[in-house]
Amino acid sequence: MTEAVAIRPADTPSASAPEDSAALIADMGRRARAAAVRLAGTPTADKAKALVAAAKAIRARAGAILAANAEDVARARANGLTAALIDRLTLDPARLEGVAAGLEAVAALPDPVGQTIDEARRPNGLLLQRVRVPLGVIGIIYESRPNVTADAGALSLMSGNACILRGGSEATASNHAIHAALLDGLRAAGLPEDAIQLVPTTDRAAVGAMLAAQGLIDIIVPRGGKSLVARVQDEARVPVLAHLDGIVHLYIDRAADAAKAVPLAVNAKMRRTGVCGATETLLLDRAYGAPGAIVAALIEAGCEVRGDAEARGLDPRILPAADSDWDCEYLDSIVSVAMVDGVEGAMAHIARHSSHHTDAIVTEDQAVADRFLAQVDSAIVMHNASTQFADGGEFGLGAEIGISTGRLHARGPVALEGLTTYKWLVRGSGQLRP
What we know:
This protein has 14 helices and 16 strands.
C-alpha cells in the first residue's frame, strides 16, 4: 500500500528575506555539522541499512512521489520550460525504480572512509599512513532533476558526510516527496535526520546564504544550467566542485567502422538529449568514406543538424551553423557538424571549443585512438563508445553527485571517493626529531 508523503510545516517552501535565509542556513549548517561528526564514525553496515530502507520507502511511496512529480511537470509546462528541462524533471515508474535501485547500488559499494591510500616506514621507524576521511558538510544546489535528491543524499551519507540540499523551484513537490523517503531510511537505521536536509525555501537568497556559509559548509556542488553554475563560482566563499557546460564531441575518424559509427552517433546524440553526456558536436574526418549516412541517420532520428559550409554539402537538409554553435550545449535534438583533417584537425577543434567534459573517437586504428585518448584534455575521453556512458552509474560508481571538469581534488564523475579527503596518521615509538 502506498503511503502519503507527509510534509512537515517546516518543510513547506516559502519566501524569505535575505537575513531570514542566512539564519535558516546557519541553523541547518550547525545541525549538519553535528550530524557529520556522528556520521564520520558510523559503521558501514548502518549507512547501508539506511539506504536500503530508503529504497524500500521510495517503492512504497511510488504513487505519491509520481503524483507530486506530475504536479511539478504540469507547472513546468505551464511556465514554458524547455522540452529538455521537462525531460530532466520527469519521473515515470521506470525512472523511479532506477532511483530506488541507485540507492541500493550505493549501499553495496565499498566504504571509502577509513581506507588506507598508502603508507611508508621512515628510516627512523615512524609509520606514515594516508587515510580517507569525509569532507564534512556538503551543500548541493541543483535544478530540474529530482533524482539528484536521492543520489546526492545517498553518496553523501555513504561517504560519511552530512548534506544540505537546495533543489530548484520547478521540482519542489518531487524533491520533498523523495526527501521524505530518505528520512524514513535514516530513521530505520537510527541515524540523525539532520544528515540529509532539504532547504525548505525556494527563495534565491537561500542560495546566497549557502555560498557564504564558511565554516558551516565545507564544499558546494552545483548541478544545473550555466547561469546557476556561473553564479556559484562567482559568489562562493567556500570551495566549489562544478562544471559549466557539457560541450561534448564525437569524432568519426577515417578508419572508423561504418557499422559502429552510425549507431554510435545516433545513440550519443539522441538517446537522451537533455543529459550532460549527450554529443553536441559531430566531427567528421574528410577522409571518412560514408559521412552522409551518419548525417541522414541523425536527421531521420529527429535531430536538427547544423553544419559548416563543407558539411552542408553532405545533405540538403543540413542548416547553416553559426559561430556560436561550436560553443553551445544544446541539451536538445540539435547537433552541429564540422569536417576536419584527421585526428589532428579533430583535436584542434576540440581544444578550441571543448568544455573538458567528455570527448570521443570512433576508429579501428589503435594508434590513432591511443593518441586521441592521451592528448585530449577532458575529464572523460572515450574510444568506440557512446558519450552517453558519461555517467557515474555506468562507471560502476553507483551514482554521481556531478561530473567535475576541473583539475583539483576530483575529476569526472564524482562519487564516494570524490567526497572524501585524507589525513596523515603518524605512528611512532617515542622518536625525537634531532
